[in-house]
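Bench notes, afternoon.
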Amino acid sequence: MASAVIASSPEETKAAGEGPQPVYINGSWVVRKADTYPNKRVYRRYSFTKDMEMPNVMLLQCPKDPGKHVHFSLEMRRVGPIDKVFSSEFESFNARFLVDGRHSFTLPGEFIKTELFFDRTPDTAEDFDEVIRASEFQTRFGQREVRVVFKVMPEFTKALPELLQAMKAGPVSILTTAEAIRDCRQYRGER
Protein backbone atom coordinates (compact mmCIF):
# COMPACT_ATOMS: atom_id res chain seq x y z
CA MET A 1 0.00 0.00 0.00
CA ALA A 2 2.63 2.58 1.05
CA SER A 3 4.89 1.79 -1.89
CA ALA A 4 1.94 2.35 -4.24
CA VAL A 5 1.54 5.85 -2.80
CA ILE A 6 5.20 6.63 -3.34
CA ALA A 7 5.43 4.95 -6.75
CA SER A 8 2.47 6.96 -8.03
CA SER A 9 3.80 10.29 -6.77
CA PRO A 10 4.59 13.11 -9.20
CA GLU A 11 8.06 12.61 -10.68
CA GLU A 12 8.46 14.43 -13.96
CA THR A 13 5.33 16.56 -14.03
CA LYS A 14 6.85 19.95 -14.75
CA ALA A 15 7.63 21.10 -18.24
CA ALA A 16 11.18 22.17 -19.01
CA GLY A 17 11.81 25.76 -17.98
CA GLU A 18 9.23 25.82 -15.15
CA GLY A 19 11.90 25.48 -12.48
CA PRO A 20 13.34 22.62 -10.49
CA GLN A 21 11.34 19.50 -9.71
CA PRO A 22 10.54 19.54 -5.97
CA VAL A 23 12.31 17.24 -3.56
CA TYR A 24 9.34 15.61 -1.85
CA ILE A 25 9.83 15.01 1.87
CA ASN A 26 7.76 13.61 4.70
CA GLY A 27 6.31 16.15 7.11
CA SER A 28 7.17 14.24 10.29
CA TRP A 29 10.46 14.10 12.15
CA VAL A 30 11.89 10.63 12.79
CA VAL A 31 14.06 9.86 15.80
CA ARG A 32 15.76 6.50 15.38
CA LYS A 33 16.34 4.64 18.64
CA ALA A 34 19.58 3.26 17.15
CA ASP A 35 20.98 6.81 16.97
CA THR A 36 22.93 7.04 20.16
CA TYR A 37 24.95 10.20 20.14
CA PRO A 38 26.42 11.17 23.50
CA ASN A 39 25.37 14.82 23.51
CA LYS A 40 22.78 15.42 20.82
CA ARG A 41 19.44 14.21 19.50
CA VAL A 42 18.85 13.98 15.74
CA TYR A 43 15.45 14.37 14.07
CA ARG A 44 15.26 13.25 10.41
CA ARG A 45 13.12 13.89 7.35
CA TYR A 46 13.30 11.60 4.36
CA SER A 47 12.75 11.87 0.64
CA PHE A 48 12.34 9.06 -1.85
CA THR A 49 13.85 8.13 -5.19
CA LYS A 50 12.55 6.45 -8.31
CA ASP A 51 14.44 3.35 -7.12
CA MET A 52 12.25 3.27 -3.98
CA GLU A 53 15.07 4.33 -1.69
CA MET A 54 14.48 6.74 1.19
CA PRO A 55 17.49 9.01 1.63
CA ASN A 56 17.69 11.24 4.68
CA VAL A 57 17.70 14.77 3.24
CA MET A 58 16.89 17.02 6.21
CA LEU A 59 18.19 16.77 9.75
CA LEU A 60 17.34 18.81 12.83
CA GLN A 61 20.17 18.43 15.32
CA CYS A 62 19.60 19.26 18.95
CA PRO A 63 22.72 19.49 21.15
CA LYS A 64 22.14 18.74 24.83
CA ASP A 65 24.27 21.75 25.81
CA PRO A 66 21.97 24.81 25.73
CA GLY A 67 25.07 26.92 25.01
CA LYS A 68 25.36 25.30 21.55
CA HIS A 69 23.05 26.14 18.66
CA VAL A 70 20.32 23.85 17.40
CA HIS A 71 20.74 23.55 13.64
CA PHE A 72 19.16 21.97 10.61
CA SER A 73 21.02 20.61 7.65
CA LEU A 74 20.09 19.71 4.11
CA GLU A 75 21.92 16.67 2.76
CA MET A 76 22.40 17.51 -0.92
CA ARG A 77 24.24 14.40 -2.14
CA ARG A 78 21.01 12.69 -3.30
CA VAL A 79 19.21 15.92 -4.24
CA GLY A 80 21.37 17.08 -7.13
CA PRO A 81 24.88 17.91 -8.26
CA ILE A 82 26.47 19.98 -5.53
CA ASP A 83 30.15 19.64 -6.47
CA LYS A 84 30.17 22.63 -8.86
CA VAL A 85 28.16 24.96 -6.63
CA PHE A 86 30.94 25.71 -4.14
CA SER A 87 34.65 26.15 -4.76
CA SER A 88 35.79 24.08 -1.75
CA GLU A 89 34.51 21.40 0.63
CA PHE A 90 33.98 23.94 3.41
CA GLU A 91 32.51 27.41 2.91
CA SER A 92 30.36 29.97 4.65
CA PHE A 93 27.56 31.39 2.50
CA ASN A 94 24.17 33.08 2.60
CA ALA A 95 21.07 31.30 1.35
CA ARG A 96 17.81 32.92 0.31
CA PHE A 97 14.65 31.11 1.43
CA LEU A 98 11.06 31.42 0.27
CA VAL A 99 8.71 29.72 2.74
CA ASP A 100 5.22 28.59 1.71
CA GLY A 101 5.29 31.13 -1.13
CA ARG A 102 4.77 34.06 1.23
CA HIS A 103 7.87 34.97 3.20
CA SER A 104 11.45 35.35 2.00
CA PHE A 105 14.61 35.93 3.99
CA THR A 106 18.32 35.17 4.10
CA LEU A 107 19.98 32.74 6.49
CA PRO A 108 23.74 32.43 6.94
CA GLY A 109 24.96 28.88 6.46
CA GLU A 110 27.95 26.62 6.10
CA PHE A 111 28.61 24.11 3.37
CA ILE A 112 30.58 21.04 4.49
CA LYS A 113 31.25 18.40 1.79
CA THR A 114 27.66 17.58 0.73
CA GLU A 115 25.60 19.22 3.45
CA LEU A 116 24.24 22.74 4.05
CA PHE A 117 24.06 23.74 7.74
CA PHE A 118 21.94 26.53 9.28
CA ASP A 119 22.11 27.52 12.97
CA ARG A 120 19.21 28.68 15.14
CA THR A 121 20.67 31.76 16.79
CA PRO A 122 18.86 34.62 18.54
CA ASP A 123 19.11 36.55 15.25
CA THR A 124 17.83 33.71 13.02
CA ALA A 125 15.35 31.94 15.35
CA GLU A 126 12.12 33.24 13.77
CA ASP A 127 13.19 32.47 10.19
CA PHE A 128 14.77 29.14 11.19
CA ASP A 129 11.49 28.06 12.81
CA GLU A 130 9.55 29.02 9.67
CA VAL A 131 11.73 26.71 7.54
CA ILE A 132 11.29 23.66 9.77
CA ARG A 133 7.51 24.28 10.02
CA ALA A 134 7.02 24.92 6.28
CA SER A 135 4.90 22.85 3.94
CA GLU A 136 7.15 24.01 1.13
CA PHE A 137 10.34 26.00 0.98
CA GLN A 138 12.83 26.83 -1.67
CA THR A 139 16.37 27.94 -1.20
CA ARG A 140 18.93 29.60 -3.47
CA PHE A 141 22.61 29.31 -2.68
CA GLY A 142 26.13 29.06 -4.04
CA GLN A 143 28.10 30.93 -6.67
CA ARG A 144 25.72 29.77 -9.42
CA GLU A 145 22.52 30.59 -7.54
CA VAL A 146 21.25 27.01 -7.45
CA ARG A 147 17.57 26.74 -6.51
CA VAL A 148 16.16 23.70 -4.71
CA VAL A 149 12.51 23.24 -3.70
CA PHE A 150 11.55 21.02 -0.76
CA LYS A 151 7.88 20.12 -0.49
CA VAL A 152 6.07 18.11 2.18
CA MET A 153 3.99 15.36 0.61
CA PRO A 154 1.06 14.46 2.93
CA GLU A 155 0.68 10.99 1.40
CA PHE A 156 4.35 10.27 2.14
CA THR A 157 3.93 11.52 5.71
CA LYS A 158 0.91 9.25 6.22
CA ALA A 159 2.69 6.21 4.70
CA LEU A 160 5.97 6.79 6.57
CA PRO A 161 5.36 4.41 9.54
CA GLU A 162 4.53 1.55 7.17
CA LEU A 163 7.52 2.32 4.94
CA LEU A 164 9.92 2.39 7.88
CA GLN A 165 8.54 -0.92 9.12
CA ALA A 166 8.90 -2.49 5.65
CA MET A 167 12.52 -1.26 5.53
CA LYS A 168 13.19 -2.82 8.93
CA ALA A 169 14.35 0.57 10.21
CA GLY A 170 14.15 -0.57 13.82
CA PRO A 171 12.41 1.26 16.64
CA VAL A 172 11.63 4.90 15.87
CA SER A 173 9.61 7.78 17.24
CA ILE A 174 7.67 9.80 14.67
CA LEU A 175 6.99 13.37 15.79
CA THR A 176 5.18 16.38 14.39
CA THR A 177 7.26 19.54 14.12
CA ALA A 178 5.66 20.94 17.30
CA GLU A 179 6.46 17.69 19.13
CA ALA A 180 10.07 17.69 17.85
CA ILE A 181 10.59 21.30 18.98
CA ARG A 182 9.10 20.51 22.40
CA ASP A 183 11.20 17.32 22.67
CA CYS A 184 14.37 19.22 21.76
CA ARG A 185 13.67 21.93 24.34
CA GLN A 186 13.05 19.33 27.05
CA TYR A 187 16.22 17.48 26.07
CA ARG A 188 18.18 20.74 26.43
CA GLY A 189 16.52 21.56 29.77
CA GLU A 190 14.79 24.64 28.31
CA ARG A 191 11.31 25.81 29.20
